[in-house]
């Protein structure tokens, strides 16, 4: 068998990491078998596997489903190869500045995800407040243009608030299902 037909595989076994070479078609079969084995592990065994691979404790907030997915991804990456250099560089660039984001006073603002003309209605202490999204990505409240919903929420309540949460919208700009606050 030629060297090109072999896949060099790092495995974490009961005695620690080992590197073996297996035919490529066997590597895929091995991945399936090892992922099936990961799926059967309980949380303590998943955390031990994480320690074996990463040399550190798994974050306490990670549940078993996430640990299973992360371990399966790591296994696939090790057996079949990771991302190419160009993709890694692109991800690094996106990590620094999300697509469509613009700088606002030294921080990144998310791109406008609310359609122009969307009306936000919110009742606060017996008074109904109306905000309208305009084409610049800003908002009009009582005849004044504001840069964000959070500034308007602070104006209404007198304290710092998440504007999208105050007006009942999700990260993607859609209406929260349990509130009747967006009319658009």
Summary, kept brief:
The protein is an alpha+beta fold and 184 residues long.
Number of domains: 2
Globular, elongated, flat, extended or rod-shaped: what is the shape?
Answer: elongated
Q: How many strand elements? A: 9
Strand order of the largest sheet: 8-7-6-5-9
Helix content: 25-40%
Distance between the termini: 64 Å
Give me the Rg, rounded.
25 Å
Q: Uncertain spans, ≥5 residues at pLDDT below 50?
A: 1-14, 103-112, 177-184
Global structural class = alpha+beta
What is the count of DSSP helices, taking H or I runs of 4+ residues?
6
Mean pLDDT: 74
Order of helices and strands: EEHHHHEEEEEEHHE
**Percent strand:** 15-25%
Task: Please outline the major beta sheet.
Answer: 5 strands, antiparallel
Describe this structure in words.
By secondary structure, the chain is an alpha+beta fold. The chain folds into two domains: 3-80, no CATH class; 113-183, no CATH class. Helices cover 39% and strands 23% of the residues. The protein has six helices and nine strands, in the order ββααααββββββααβ. It has helices at 24-40, 43-54, 64-80, 85-96, 149-157, 163-166; strands at 6-13, 16-23, 102-104, 107-109, 119-124, 127-133, 139-141, 144-146, 182-183. A five-stranded antiparallel sheet has the order 8-7-6-5-9, with helices on one face. A hairpin with a 2-residue loop joins strand 1 (6-13) and strand 2 (16-23). Helix 1 (24-40) packs antiparallel against helix 3 (64-80) and helix 2 (43-54) packs parallel to helix 3 (64-80). The longest helix has 17 residues, at 24-40. The protein is elongated, with a radius of gyration of 25 Å. The chain starts with 5 loop residues before the first strand and ends with a strand. Residues 1-14, 103-112 and 177-184 have low confidence and may be disordered.
């Amino acid at each position: 068998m030629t060297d090109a037909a072999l896949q060099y595989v790092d495995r974490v076994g009961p005695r620690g990491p080992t590197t073996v070479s297996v035919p490529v078609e066997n590597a895929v079969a091995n991945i399936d078998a090892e992922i099936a084995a990961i799926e059967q592990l309980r949380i303590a065994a998943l955390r031990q596997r994480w320690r074996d691979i990463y040399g550190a404790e798994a974050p306490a907030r990670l549940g078993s489903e996430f640990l299973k997915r992360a371990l399966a991804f790591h296994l696939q990456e090790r057996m079949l190869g990771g991302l190419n250099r160009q993709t890694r560089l692109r991800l690094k660039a996106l990590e620094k500045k999300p697509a469509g984001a613009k700088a606002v006073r030294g921080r990144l603002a998310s791109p406008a995800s609310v359609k122009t003309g969307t009306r936000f209605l919110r009742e606060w202490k017996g008074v109904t407040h109306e905000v309208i999204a305009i084409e610049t990505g800003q908002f009009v409240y009582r005849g004044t243009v504001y840069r964000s919903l959070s500034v308007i929420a602070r104006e209404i309540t007198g304290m710092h608030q998440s504007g999208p949460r105050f007006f009942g919208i999700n990260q993607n700009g859609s209406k929260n299902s349990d509130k009747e606050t967006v009319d658009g």
